[in-house]
Amino acid sequence: MRSFFRVLSDRTATIVGSPWAFVATAVVTLAWLAVGPWCGYSDTWQLTMNTAASQVTFLIAFLLQSTQNRDTRALHLKLDELLRTHQGARRQLIKLEEWSDADLEALRHDFERLRDARGRGGPAG
Q1: Among 49, 51, 77, 87, which is most exposed with the fewest C-beta within 10 angstroms?
Q2: Does residue 67 sit within a domain?
Q3: Is 11 a domain residue?
Q4: Distance of CA 107 to CAs 89, 92, 103, 113, Å?
Q5: Is-contact 83 94, C-beta < 8 A?
Q6: What phi, psi does 59 have (nearest 5°)?
Q7: How far apart are CA 125 and CA 119, in angstroms?
Q8: Which domain holds residue 64?
Q9: How do residues 11-67 score in pLDDT, each as one tens digit?
Q10: pTM of the entire structure?
């Protein structure tokens, strides 16, 4: 089941992110608008598009989130491997994504102090 869902979410993300998906959505929307006068802009006409759009959005949100979660996990593993193998890297930064918000904020302040100590204050502003 998990493998099927992974394949489904990957393919959905690829399709939904393509220019063809945008074109198809635009065509469906224009067709729906063109049918409006014929239906007298009835409540059913509006409800049809409203319901379809809501359901598609709801389902795609879960599929895209699944893909995003997997990509994020893979990225973290790659970064952890770089930290593990790079001489001089702080090994405690491995699994940084599991730190508390307070610990992350403290680390951000440490990096700001390092940046300021080196005289790299960023762009003038």
Answers
A1: 87
A2: yes
A3: yes
A4: 14, 11, 6, 10
A5: yes
A6: -70, -45
A7: 15
A8: 2-94
A9: 988 998 899 999 999 999 999 999 999 999 999 999 999 999 999 999 999 988 988
A10: 0.63
